[in-house]
Amino acid sequence: MAGLYRDTGVVLRVHKLGEADRIITLLTKKHGKVRAVAKGVRRTTSRFGARLEPFGHVDVQFYPGRTLDVITQVQTVDTVAAGLISDYQRYTTASAITETADRLVSEEGEPVLRLYLLVLGALRALAGGERDASLVLDAFLLRAMAFAGWAPALTECARCGEPGTHPAFSVQAGGMMCGRCRTAGAVHPSPETLALLVALLHGDWEVAEASGQGARRDANGIVAAHLQWHMERQLRSLPLVERRGRDSDGQTRPGTVPATE
Hints:
Elements: E1 5-17, E2 21-28, E3 32-38, E4 57-63, E5 69-78, H1 88-104, H2 113-128, H3 133-148, E6 168-170, E7 175-177, H4 191-202, H5 205-209, H6 213-231, E8 243-246, E9 252-255
Parallel strand pairs: 3-5
Antiparallel strand pairs: 1-2, 1-4, 2-3, 4-5, 6-7, 8-9
Helix pairs in contact: 1-2, 1-3, 2-3, 3-4, 3-6, 4-6
């Protein structure tokens, strides 16, 4: 069939369409964000309805349509979704990851390979269960903001650019601020919190996993506030994320996201 194309992608979200169809939003390896119709997938007789659920990592064949492409074939690449849907914390964390990716990509059909790899890597880390879900989420959000050009300044002053460790963090200014540039309303993260943020941004998991729960809570709040400032509205899924994780001593404790500004 002329015009058919294939790609590998992660299912970001699904919407009902009519009585039996769904609109599937995927983040694909070669074509970026793609919205396509999956016909008849809500029927019990559907051949691939179960494969087109959120977080699914699939190989898809598309037929270009007038407004939306049509999905004609689907094959599962791996079972990453199976490790997410049965655990509330992992499920809500994965939902925040896919919603962030969906919001960050406004243009459909434009390749965003770096973001695709970030999403897939984060979902695989969650499904594996070897890393704390809260740390995985904040690492993803920081790197996704870097992809969008919103990375907070952590090792230099956001206003004057002076390198070094500075005492204050301002969401409005874009990150850490030196004593001369500090503005009213800035927060003062502890050195451990700042070290954790730097570690998460750069993938230093040895430092990240050695952090205490207090530093993780403060990092949660800073990352969430920074993301919300740039997106101009909060993610719907982020307040539902259960901030519960293993401390550096191996104990599991509940956590909350504190206000930072």
